[in-house]
Amino acid sequence: MDRRIREAYNDQILDEALKRYGVTQDAVRPLDGFESFIYEYEKDGRGYVLRITHSLRRTADMIGGEVDWINYLAGRDVPAARAVLSERGRLVETIEAQDGYFLAVAFERAPGTYPCREDWERDLMVQVGQLVGRMHALTKDYRPSEPRFKRYEWYEDADGFAAKYLPPSEATVIGKYNALVEYLHTLPKDRDAYGLVHIDVHGMNFYVHQGQITLFDFDDCQYAWFAYDVAMALFYTLPHHCVGEKNVAFARDTFRLFMDGYRRENTLAPEWLKRIPLFMKLREIDLYIAIHRSLDLNNLDPWCASFMDNRKYKIEHDVPYVDMDFVE
Fold first, then answer.
1. Which of 62, 225, 250, 51 is nearest to 132 (CA)?
2. How far apart are CA 220 and CA 57, in angstroms?
3. How far, in Å, CA of 248 to CA of 121, rounded?
4. Is CB count within 10 Å lower at the N or C end of the chain?
């Protein structure tokens, strides 16, 4: 999270957001949020999640586009946590603040809990693949309900991202990132390969209830390649250092299960499967930059510390995130 957002946030902002949804502060519980302030609460016997984001990160129209797409998908049998109306009948509430404004959105709370080891062992990855495939099939015909709700293109976050947040000592990483982004700009964007995608499907963004998943956190949804969305789903299931016969075999099996589900809803041409390593590299460097931007490198949590271990070397020397044949 941008430090300016943390500094602008206070209890008055929270109180006002809760008021817009008819909730009191003693009725909410804070949840972990990397880019926004997240809370859960109950109202009239039902569970909800409140997200508060600053305009430095997203405009009101951008969030309007997010909830428009979520509710479009949920209305077409995609198990996604719907956005709900405020007391004033709005899907997005604007709250004036320092250096801009905060935006509050509430969602139905997904049933269940985060997936556990037993869920994954029951081939949950097949269901994840089918979910992603269905979203890709549906996005081909999606049009925002209002033109101003059109979400941003992938490059609007990527262009200049490395140079903005990495120090000069990271010149090689900056160069690698810029070269990759420049190449991706040359790729085709036809209807069967490119559209509005979630871009963050992983086990911390869905719950499992009675063997069924419900997806949430569409905050990063953007116009990008379907293969990028697939790469992201795989990226977060693999160990941070996916080397050795056992780990690579796990990666192959995981990808096979994902694609078994994906093909039930959509198809992806082999030339796009070949490009998955490029999209995994994009995510790898994106995350490396985001950690530099938002966290204290000398005081990282275990997950981030594991990811960052030897990461600079791997990026600078073009080490694949996982060395395998995705077409095979």
1. 225
2. 10
3. 17
4. C
CA distance 128 to 237: 11
How confident is the model over 190-219, as pLDDT tens digits?
999 999 999 999 999 999 999 999 999 999
Name the phi and psi angles at 253, rounded to 5. Answer: -65, -40
pTM, two decimals, is: 0.91
Please state, as a whole number, how many other Cβ atoms lie within 10 Å of the Cβ of residue 136.
25
Region 301-315 average pLDDT: 96
Checking 5-10 for CB contacts under 8 A at 24+ apart, the result is 5/54, 5/56, 5/57, 7/98, 8/54, 8/97, 8/98, 8/99, 8/100, 8/102, 9/37, 9/52, 9/54, 9/97, 9/102
Would you say residue 304 has pLDDT above 90? Answer: yes
Rg of the Cα atoms in the chain: 20
With a pLDDT cut of 90, the percent of the chain lying above it is: 86
CA-nearest of 14, 31, 67, 20 to 218 is 67
Ordered by where they begin, the domains of the chain are: 3-108 (3.30.200.20), 117-316 (3.90.1200.10)
From residue 114, alpha-carbon distances to 163, 194, 234 in Å are: 35, 29, 17
